[in-house]
Amino acid sequence: MRILFSVLVLLGMAGTAAAADGTMPTRFQGEWAVRLTDCGLRGGDNTEGMTITARAIGHYEESIAIKRVTVLGKDSVRYEGILSTYDGEEPVTDTLRISADGKRLIEAGYADGPNSKAPDLLRCTR
User: Which residues form the domain of 82?
Assistant: First the structure.
């Protein structure tokens, strides 16, 4: 009985480790913008866009070093990291949701839209 319990504990720990690490899934990586015409721009009109790599998220005037990513489902992840801005650094936790076709990050822009709803970001293809 003790051996069975130990095996179950180890299996549970292995499952947790596989579900959470410091790498953003490939499905979420890429350049994102509110409008496709803003792709490739830095600042100016693309202040709400972002670039996601395996270990970082870059925004206009700030960046996040990803420390931990938990896959919540096929289309959703929660990340933890260190936000760096001109004011300094602080821990940050947030969730990203992607559309089923992989072309939109849902409500991922800054909350400047109607009713403080953040706009979706579109995947840049260039």
Answer: 20-123
